[in-house]
Amino acid sequence: MRVSNCSVSFWQEAVDLLSDICGPAHVLTDTDILYSYGQDETLGLNFGFDILVKPGTAEEVAAIVKTCNELRIPITPRGGGSGVTGGALPIQGGVVVSLERLNKIIRIDEINGYVVAESGVITAELCEQVEQHGLYFPVQPSSKAYSFIGGNVAENAGSIHSCRYGTTAQYVLNLEVVLPTGAIIWTGANVPKNATGLNLTPLFVGSEGVLGIITKVVYRLIRRPEHEVTLLAGFETMEAACNAVLAIKQASISPAAVELIGQEALHLTAAYLNRTLPLVKEGIKAHLLIGLQEVTESALLHAMEKTGSVLEKYTTEPILAGTTALEKEQLWKLRFSIGAALSGKGKTYRDIDISIPLSLLYQYITKVEEIAASYHLAVACFGHALDGNLHTMIMLEQHMGPQAEAKAAEAVKNIYAYAIANGGVISGEHGIGMLQKEFMEVQFSEDHLALSRSIKRLLDPRDILNPGKIF
Ligand SMILES: Cc1cc2nc3c(=O)[nH]c(=O)nc-3n(C[C@H](O)[C@H](O)[C@H](O)COP(=O)(O)OP(=O)(O)OC[C@H]3O[C@@H](n4cnc5c(N)ncnc54)[C@H](O)[C@@H]3O)c2cc1C
């Protein structure tokens, strides 16, 4: 049975049952409210659905899932709705479970170095709270002001700091998960070493809400290196910027961030911010924004000298250093405004989040530009250069219409084919969701996909949890 076939009385019964679980105030059917939960940050898409539920505890989540399972109602788990591949879009209608009321930080354990929090805690809130205890959670996606920690785990989110600190996966010690049957499990333990039985934690990290609903997260925490500086270097060619990234990798420097910003992205961002930005000038084709973090001042000075001497081989432009909080903030603002600059002024864009072997960084960018140009499309390039995880945005404008969108789709296919043939993956951090699903067959063998699908069937035989996503 699928939702569209169901009668009004069926839905009224579902509303009554869910209201008994969460209280009527947390079960919503008002069309205007549902509209804002029918979308995320993906290409202006919006899907209608039937009931929005906002549980307040894991037990309520479990009871909701059990009820929907019995009634065979599709469920879409939703975090902060900042996803860009449509993972939280309720494409088959039914129930959206918003985790926004599971927003408590339960414990920050300073001695053992972990935090236990409900999955609806906003990322920035968690980061601030742990820092007040002298601890640090380094994987802070640029969407941290509104993404939830459960959403980050579900997407295995990355950040500008992933080149040094890794992605979300490297910090998850343990998860409380509601399975599609309504059972509640803990996947691991709150200890850094654990060789006890099958390790179920990684199964749920990056599972995009198709295997279970994460209700609590235990993150390992580290100490924050206190001394930091931000460097900005401009390059006359993209090739020089990419070669500088490779040279940084070869040198024994471990930067906390190395972000590449291509000319197109930089100029659009400068216009968007409407202010004179350093090094935004003719002849500069690419920038590197580099974050250094060290535990002592002398170590930081050493890292700065080493980085400076590497960069000077590839650029004659002065290298700017932001040392005060304000200077650093202004430099990073450049990077963090790119998304808004690209999507502002009625522009829409298609986000490509490929991860490729670092040695192919420049070839990859050149190939993307070549493919985009062959379809008469503009492309803006920026991203996590030292990870090989670039965001190349195919720029579309709303007036361009469906023909341009079709061309962009063709261009994306060719770009993905190139990346996969050269050892890359179609997503470094944004996931598959609904948008990238069609490319899974290019990425994986039929046997690989069959195994993934059988894991899904084992956990969710009725296919009620986030159906139609990933595979
Ligand atoms: C401006 C901007 C900047 C961004 N920067 C980054 C970045 O730096 N790094 C990065 O990795 N991504 C980035 N993203 C993408 C996005 O923010 C991340 O994917 C983020 O982790 C999604 O979290 P969310 O809470 O918003 O999840 P949602 O969008 O609500 O959901 C994402 C997926 O997770 C599932 N899900 C959500 N919560 C749960 C749960 N509790 N249990 C099970 N499944 C769940 C949903 O069903 C969906 O499939 C950015 C997006 C924007 C718009």
From TrEMBL:
The keyword Nucleotide-binding does not apply. Its cofactor is FAD. Residues 45-224 form the FAD-binding PCMH-type domain. It holds the Pfam family FAD-oxidase_C. Keywords: FAD, Flavoprotein, Oxidoreductase. The keyword Flavoprotein applies. PANTHER family: GLYCOLATE OXIDASE SUBUNIT GLCD. This is FAD-binding oxidoreductase. It comes from Hymenobacter lucidus. The lineage of its organism: Bacteria, Pseudomonadati, Bacteroidota, Cytophagia, Cytophagales.
